[in-house]
Amino acid sequence: MSKLTKRDIVVAISNQTGMVQHQVFDIVQRTLDEITDSLARNVAVELRNFGVFQPRLTKPRVGRNPNQPGSRFVIPSRATVKFKAGKIMRQRVEMLSREMKDAAQRKEDGAAPGSPAA
After folding, report:
1. pLDDT digits (tens, 9 = 90+) for 49-68
2. Starting at the edge strand that comes first in sequence, how are the strands of the sheet with 45-47 ordered?
3. Does residue 72 have a pLDDT over 60?
4. How far apart are CA 111 and CA 108, in angstroms?
5. How confident is the model at residue 41 (pLDDT cuts 50, 70, 90)?
6. What DSSP string runs through 54-113?
7. Which of 41, 42, 93, 117 lies at a C-alpha separation of 20 to 30 Å from 15?
8. Can you tell me the distance from the alpha carbon of 55 to that of 45, in angstroms, rounded to the nearest whole number?
9. Which residues 6+ apart lie within 8 Å of 28 measured at CB?
10. Where are the domains of the chain?
11. What is the DSSP string of 25-37?
């Protein structure tokens, strides 16, 4: 599985718009900074067709040390961010899921019985 970096986004937008990469980087960085600042102020960020970022507070819970199974301790509550994908993103990822399942099935069907899949 590959990954998309901020740099990849900057290069792609620069190529699509003809803007200088430095300007695009500044815009992308300011966008990410604004999202981060909003979440830090406990403000949800809704990006239509992409998704919603919501600041959440986890509940305190009891934890255990695997090295000392009898000992318990309280893991305090903490702030975190929940992401819920938007409709278009869910649909596109769902298509990818179907494609990956189909490819895995074709690979399975192509393997000889009793032999490991290549």
Report:
1. 999 999 999 999 999 888 88
2. 45-47, 51-57, 79-85
3. yes
4. 5
5. very high
6. EEEEPPPEEEEETTEEEEEEEEPP-EEEEEEE-HHHHHHHHHHHHHHHHHHHHHHHHSPT
7. 93
8. 9
9. 6, 9, 10, 13
10. 1-43
11. HHHHHHHHHHHHH
Tokens of 94: 């769902």
CB 51 within 8 A of CB 85: yes
- The CA-based angle 33-37-40, given to 5 degrees, is 140
Task: Measure the CA–CA gap between 29 and 36, rounded to whole angstroms.
Answer: 10
Q: How far is CA 25 from CA 14, 15, 20, 53, in A?
A: 9, 12, 9, 22
Residue 52 in 3-state DSSP? Answer: strand
Token representation of residue 50 = 């992409």
Q: What does DSSP say about strands 68-75 and 45-47: parallel, antiparallel, or unpaired?
A: unpaired
Radius of gyration, alpha carbons of the chain? 22
Cα dihedral angle (72, 74, 79, 80), rounded to 10 degrees? 20
The tokens for 96 are: 């990818």
List the structure tokens of 66. Answer: 């695997």
Query: Position of tokens 């999202």?
Result: 35
